[in-house]
Amino acid sequence: MPKDNEAQIGDGMGRSPLSVDEFDLVSFRPGHDAAVTKFNEDLLGRWPIAHAIYRHIYNADGEFSTRIGLYGEWGAGKTSVLNFLRAISEHNDDVIIHFSAWRAAEIDAFMTSLSDSLKREIKRRELKTSFRFKLNSFFSRASRNSVAIAEATGQAAGKLDGELSQMITAGAAFTGAVAKAVEQRLNFSADEVESLREILREHKIIVFIDDLDRADPKILPKIFMALREYLDWPGFSFVLSFDKAVILDALNDYSSAFASAPQPFLEKIVDVVFDLKRPATDLPSQMITHLLQEQCAFIPEKDRLAAAGWFPGNPRKIKSICRELQAAKVSAVRHGDGELSWEAIIVQTILRRESERLVEFVEREMLGRDKLSLGLSFTGEKKLEAAALLDKAMTKSGYAEGTPEHSRLYNMIVRLQGLRRLHDAQRISYEMQLSTHAPIFTQREVKEIIDTWDGGCHDDFVSDALRLGGERAFVTPTEATSKLLDMVTDFYVACVRGLRTSKVKSVKDETLAAAERAARFLLNIVTRNTASAGNLAFCIRILNMSIENDSNNDLEEIFLRVLEWQILSFVSEHCLDKSALFHECFPHEGSKVPMLAERVQQRTVSAAVESILVLFASANGVYMCAGQGADNRHLRWMLDRDALLYQSPHKKCLINFLQAEVDSSQVSIVAKNTIDYIGLVSNRMNSFSGFASDNRDLIEACWRAIIRENWNIKGQQDVEHIKSRLEGWGGVSGLSLPQQW
Hints:
By secondary structure, this protein is mainly α. Helices cover about 60% and strands about 5% of the residues. It has four domains: about 45-275, P-loop containing nucleotide triphosphate hydrolases (Rossmann fold), CATH 3.40.50; about 280-430, no CATH class; about 440-575; about 605-740. Helix 12 (about 280-295) runs antiparallel to helix 13 and helix 30 (about 620-625) packs parallel to helix 33.
């Protein structure tokens, strides 16, 4: 290749030097997946191949046609080579016909498409009308004659008319007997042959036939046989672009006559082959580096370089992956440094181009915190489990063990597991949806909102930020507020943890100031947005965070503890499910309830008592509660003799409920639930006798609620059994039965 970005066509062609900078075939790209058209876009070394094809065309004997096959798999760059070849040819004023066989459903449609393409090119060049007319007439008759050719292919593969066979193999020129044969076989007049000869004296005619491998497989043999009749015109060059494997399979499926020798049949059609094998090792790497820099410069360079080695070798897949990453730019640039795990995002995006069954299994079973990972398993048993899981995943890949593809994918999954080892499912999902789901806020934006608010900005600023976040992510204002609360809490927790790990005073002071700003901002937000602040999940999070931090007695953090309690106090008062929050205050079994939890319970106990009353007022409420086992929070509370439920004034609420006047249907429901309650606590409560003696007023209220019901014989027997149990186990006496019993 000449220096200074210049490519010249030499070898005695007598044409002017060709500078690649002169080429800009189109002023726009028809789509992301379009083949490249410019020399500076050639990242896979395809320009030299186009140069070599043209050199072969131009140096060929003028008395013979040139028939070239351009072979390559999907995405190998065949159309890019044709684009480069077109640029070179047009620079030298050759006649170029370029069309796709993709849409041809019948042989006549194929010939018509070829004819139309040639007519358009002739018109563009403003050739003489007489020549256009003759050539149009020629193609019209040729299209009609293609029916006979199609019929011939159905009889036997490769069966040709003897005279035409001689024309093909001998490569005869338009003279003498051959010219006469063309006239007779194609109804082509002597004048038309002469006109064709005249045009070929000044120009080469180069016909590109692209996408043959995408045409209807049923007509492929007919297309090749039809082309064979026209492939030996002196001065004409045909470049046929297709995936050789696809064509050979189509020929084999078309007829058993091709099954034994489809390759020799192609060799009769195509004289010269340019096969676009996998590019040299360094070329895809250069392409990946270039595209990532061009389309994904917003991704840190170190992450681009770290992930580049996992890209597949297919150029089209490389471009597609880079475009997908590029689609995340709008959301990605809103994040701060280190906020996103870009190497993991790139590698997982590449993985998603593999088998759908494999990807689904890996993402569900193998990625994230607490998942088995071969690279992070330190015991022999865990390593065996992780290896078995990875082997199971690889069976879904479709690659045979020992192949380069299998090895690449195996190692890529191990690497991805390491990159995702500390991430939860929510974070992985968030990062992999950046191209399709705009985040409401990013961590960087949350910090900016806090700092701006702390600078004395009006509260309307926060309202505007919430509105913008909601509009950007298509969520309601309440959802936007909830997200902001969660993210501010995340930031605050990170600051508090940083305080306890920082060894540098200046850094610690800065972190403490950031934590105070975040806490004050959080308090401001919760007091202005009670609906979002009252969300149970958020209330529980604030509760657990406050309890965890309350154990730290560092004087520097005293003001933080004050702010935390103010926030916790407010959210507990406005929690939308106070009963649930009350029960979340209980610690693990055997430990004491923390002081902060006790203070929250005092604010929420009334709601918890109310939920017990709802059980008693619901048909079979207590029975169903008992059936849920020890995990039921109401059951655990009722069986705890020291529970707030049995302390004044909460016990009084239960007694008043049991003694209240209700209609007959409600009497039955309360009586049934009460007898289930007495049976439950007498059977399962530790030291029930002590409970009964301490709560005789409650037991008596329960008894009165029970005997108000008009029980049948079986019910009366159950009540008498309960009376005996209370008098025996609980030491409760003086419980009377109705006289009518």
